[in-house]
Structure formats: structure tokens, C-alpha cells
Write a structure and sequence with these properties.
The protein is an alpha/beta fold. The chain is built from seven helices and 14 strands. Strand 2 (about 30-35) and strand 3 (about 40) form a beta hairpin. The longest helix has 15 residues, at about 245-260. Bound molecules: zinc ion (ZN) (2 copies). One zinc ion binds near residues 73, 75, 154, 158 and 175. One zinc ion binds next to loops.
């Protein structure tokens, strides 16, 4: 049973729907880390709605009624899809939400998202599913996975995840500024010895110079982090919404020339591709 990663959303900030953005995809962040029939959902951008149909209908595995979701933070691009995650509409479903935040904080934020102002619901308790909120503390077991976390350099609190099983190690770093800083140094040391590194890379270097304080990375600084972390497979994600397929492919080719060798490969993440170890 190999570990794999499947993206349902690769865009940062907002959706990007256009015929010239079909290859890399247009949904906001969501992916699954998979081992056998186990699915660990990471982030709940709008991509989670397509995933919901697959999980409920038993595509690529059995139909299920228990779901495990890790959230990096509460910026809207990472949680807005939750209200369109169809398992929440059914009584027999149990939704486990894991973060390093205090449970009361998570409930307060999601109650706001799901109140009568921003959704047709009236708070978490108005939905038929069962919610279970878990505060992660250091190292936690979620199904066959062991999950640990590290803060990112972002605006507000945001967490990177290290997801380990007997089959391999995935590190997910999103909404992080990879320029040199004590926070980045600490994160790079923590992320070493992984098999798949997922790292955000929203900006070109010139875009980064316009917005150096937004808490995101240029693809050059993301690649430099990846060189230091040394994973055999690096997937860059959180693509800028305005970037079309040919622009992404051009940047990807440029980075491949600088980065790829016999021991390591880098790609820009695409929706719908199952990346295996
Ligand atoms: Zn984001
Ligand atoms: Zn953010």
C-alpha cells in the first residue's frame, strides 16, 4: 500500500475558473493523503465539494460515514468549502476536525461561517451530522497516520503538517513565507526527511516584491526550501488565481531545470493527479 497525495484544489485565495486553467485546476485548497482506503482530508477550500461526492458515493474506495479533516488555519480559502461538504447534511455522518487551535476557538470560527449570515444554516449544531473537534498536541494518531504540526510564517496563526504512516512521510506547508527568518529555519529543520513535500509558491519573485508582508512565498524561495528539505518529490501549490496553465507550465519548466536531478523531482500540483511515492 503506497502512500499517495491527491489534490482537489490547488489555488490560493480565490477560485479561478477558466478554460485556460483546466490542467492545474481552479479550486481553492483541498487535498487528501491516502493509504489504501484511508483518506485524510487536508484543508477545506472549495475543492472539498468534489471530494465529498467521491467519498459519499464510494468512488475510489468504500462509501463511508466518518471523515477526518485537518485544517491549516481559518483564512477563507481554506475553510469556505466546508459548508458545501455534503456529508454534513446527513445524520449518520461523523465529521472529525483536527487543528492545533483550542476547540472553543475552532467552534467559534466555524459557527460564524455556518451562521445565518454567511450560510443557510444556523451554526454547527443546526446541521444533522455529528461534529467532533480534536485539539492536536504534539503528535496524534488519525487512522493509520501520525500527525504532527509546526507553525508557519504567515499573517495570524497557521500550521504546517507532517503526516506519517508505515508507508511514508508527507509534509504540507501552506500559507508560509519562505524567506530567511527564524520561523522558516525552524520549519525547514522540522520538515526534513520527508518523502513528499507540498509547499506553497503563490508568487513570482516580482509579485513577491510588491507584497512582501502577506505571508506567502515566491516560487524561488519555495524551491530553495525544497532544496534544503531534500524530499524526493516536491509539489508546489496555492497557485495565484490569475496564473493560467501556460504560465504555470513555463514557470514549472524553469524550476525543473534548476531543481530536478536523479534524487529529486519538483512539479506544480495539479488537481486530479494521484501523486504516489
Ligand atoms: Zn491560503
Ligand atoms: Zn492564509
Amino acid at each position: 500500500m503506497a502512500l499517495s497525495v491527491l489534490f482537489y484544489g490547488t489555488r490560493g485565495q480565490i477560485m479561478s475558473v477558466s478554460s485556460d486553467r483546466l490542467i492545474y485546476g481552479g479550486h481553492t485548497p483541498c487535498l487528501t493523503v491516502n493509504e489504501g482506503e484511508e483518506r485524510l482530508i487536508v484543508d477545506a477550500g472549495f475543492g472539498i465539494s468534489n471530494l465529498a461526492h467521491e467519498l459519499m458515493n464510494g468512488k475510489n474506495g468504500p462509501a463511508r460515514n466518518e471523515f477526518h479533516i485537518l485544517l491549516s488555519h481559518f483564512h477563507w480559502d481554506h475553510i469556505q468549502g466546508l459548508m458545501y461538504f455534503s456529508p454534513i447534511y446527513f445524520e449518520h455522518n461523523r465529521i472529525n476536525v483536527y487543528t492545533p487551535f483550542e476547540v472553543d476557538v475552532v467552534k467559534e470560527v466555524l459557527n460564524l461561517l455556518l451562521d445565518g449570515s454567511y450560510s443557510p444554516f444556523n451554526g454547527l449544531a443546526s446541521l444533522p451530522c455529528t461534529w467532533n473537534f480534536v485539539k492536536l498536541n504534539g503528535s496524534n494518531r488519525v487512522g493509520p497516520f501520525n500527525v504532527s504540526f509546526h507553525p508557519t510564517a504567515h499573517i495570524g496563526e497557521c500550521y504546517a503538517y507532517r503526516i506519517t504512516s508505515d508507508e511514508g512521510r508527507v509534509v504540507y506547508v501552506t500559507d508560509h513565507d519562505a524567506r530567511s527568518s527564524p520561523a522558516n529555519e525552524s520549519l525547514v529543520a522540522w520538515a526534513k526527511d520527508c518523502d513528499i513535500l507540498i509547499h506553497e509558491a503563490m508568487f513570482t519573485p516580482s509579485e513577491y516584491s510588491l507584497f512582501p508582508d502577506l505571508g506567502h512565498s515566491s516560487f524561488i524561495s519555495a524551491m530553495e526550501n525544497a532544496q534544503r528539505i531534500g524530499a524526493p518529490m516536491t509539489l508546489l501549490t496555492h497557485h495565484a488565481a490569475r496564473r493560467n496553465d501556460s504560465e504555470l507550465a513555463e514557470h514549472e519548466r524553469y524550476l525543473e531545470k534548476l531543481f530536478n536531478n536523479r534524487d529529486r523531482k519538483l512539479a506544480f500540483a495539479r488537481e486530479g493527479i494521484n501523486y504516489r511515492l
